[in-house]
Amino acid sequence: MVKVGALTAFGLLSLAGQVMAQQSVKVMPFGASIVTRCWRNNLDAKLKAAGVKNYDFVGSQQGSQDCLKQFPGTDNDHEGHSGSQATDYAAKGNLTTWLNQQPAVDVVVMFLGHNDVILGHKPLDTIIKAYDTLIEQMRKKNPKMQIVWSNLTPVDPKRWDTSSNPNNSKDIAALSARIKEYAPSKSTSDSPVYFVNNFEGFNPVSDTDDGEHPSTSGNEKMASKFLPAAKEAIQAVSRSSGIIRGVLGVRRVTMADRRRTK
Ligand SMILES: *[C@@H]1O[C@H](CO)[C@@H](O)[C@H](O)[C@H]1NC(C)=O
Ligand SMILES: *[C@@H]1O[C@H](CO)[C@@H](O)[C@H](O)[C@H]1NC(C)=O
């Protein structure tokens, strides 16, 4: 931790250098298999087209080459792990591990919960408790974490409601409705939660490959839905931490700077 009051001119120079070297906003797309899909690349292209460029997607995983073919030159990094459940992540601390592997993450773009329902058959209250834990883990790592939180896309009842689990599509709809209430309720001024409604307007037949995972049209819808919230979150971080007016000129040293220089 740099003690700002004790900075020498040299210290300030090197601090400014470090901040400039790392000033792009770190954005972690986080979740399960749907996060591996090309909506991220589509979102990256849309953000850049909208003039938002000072960010970097981070994560230990890489999307498929197909995503790069569809969206050349886009950022393919993410933290989506197929088959994963929010309840397991919360219990096992995976998110903390992944956040620790990256330079200070500023924004988490979260899409997670399908597998808790369709594989884990977890009660909705249990899933919401896991979300509480995940938010705590994000804020423990960064008290100013900007959290872009989507509810879930619907699943096709013809594909996913089986004789042993007849309520999957209804339970996904119910969880999505819960997230719509829950996400805004977790927002704070230091660490806003930006709710994204990917349930609405998504057709689980025509917008998916398999009744669950987004097809090209589904990826387009998701990217368009994520765009305004992702833009707002990235710009909020830039406003609070990216201001350097000349190397020795006026600048604000923010908590984000201090985190980065730890
Ligand atoms: C989550 O963490 C547990 C415990 O370390 C590990 O066994 C599991 O493989 C991790 N999950 C993923 C998707 O990496
Ligand atoms: C499915 O939902 C109905 C009511 O909506 C409920 O009575 C039934 O127990 C549920 N079945 C399962 C397996 O969750």
UniProtKB/TrEMBL annotation:
InterPro entries: Ester_Hydrolysis_Enzymes (IPR051532), SGNH_hydro (IPR013830), SGNH_hydro_sf (IPR036514). Keywords: Hydrolase, Signal. This is SGNH hydrolase. One of its GO terms (molecular function) is phosphatidylcholine lysophospholipase activity. The keyword Transmembrane helix does not apply. It holds the Pfam family Lipase_GDSL_2. Residues 61-220 form the SGNH hydrolase-type esterase domain. It comes from the Eukaryota. Residues 1-21 form the signal peptide.
